What does this fold into?
Amino acid sequence: MIEGQEDVTWDDWVAIAAACERSGIGTLFRSDHYFSVEDRPERGSLDAWATLAALAALTEKLRLGTMVSPATFRHPSVFAKSAVSVDQISGGRVEAGLGAGWWQREHDAYGFDLSELGARMDAFEEQLEIVTRQWQEGAFSFEGEHFRIDDLDAQPKPVQARMPLIVGGRGGPRSLRIAARWASEYNTVMRGPEEVADLRGRLDAECEKQGRDPATLPLSVMTGWIVGGTREEVVDRAARLARWQGTGEDGERFLAERPDAWITGTVAEAVEQLRALHEAGCHRVMAQHLLHRDIEAIELIGREVAPLTERL
It folds into this structure.
């Protein structure tokens, strides 16, 4: 999981994708932001779906997705068409993530409307229905408070029989209800095992309430990631990340100040943390790799961490 708004260049994306394919990482997710969430306006960002389209043409096996696209950025028809385009280019390797949007500074800077949460969630739910129905066979019309579709049978359809649609949220009741209705996966951020177990239970209950088998709605977590082959490598990466964030150069201190939900440590320690999340009901973890030019750290995930997690 790469934070693309933090000055990830096209050359960086090519190197990251190549490292993922070379080392056996299955899926590369990127954020969908136009403005640095570290509030560093000098950092650039390439458009998420344009980037994924280009990477789709350069890669052969790597699955690609957004974690997650703000629904406030694009009309649902534009989002649906962008995702289908990348799915066609890649031969069926897209996982489309969608959330309601949140970064006020970004919306103000680029002129996107960020309404109050209630209205935003109303629009988000309409968008999920429109996107889902555009990917399905047959024509449909839709008349909502925020969007209108008139007798549309969008072509082409996704290569995949069912395009994965990941809904991102923080576990609120309405978010879970929407996910149980429309999502193929529910993703949350920065949660430890106890929080994951609680969320999994509430997600199961909502699925059962709606008559859906909970086993058909996986739960995933996107969380911070600082992992090395040795303790020295871990501390070095932590020190570099501290410098990148402008919080000093003390790697040990930086590690000690990380939230418990972060995955930090050696490969063996990371696998044990992943095991705890798995046992709590987490289907998969998106490793937030903030030192995006550290290609060795990416290869370590594919070469050493991923094979061990297959045994969980």
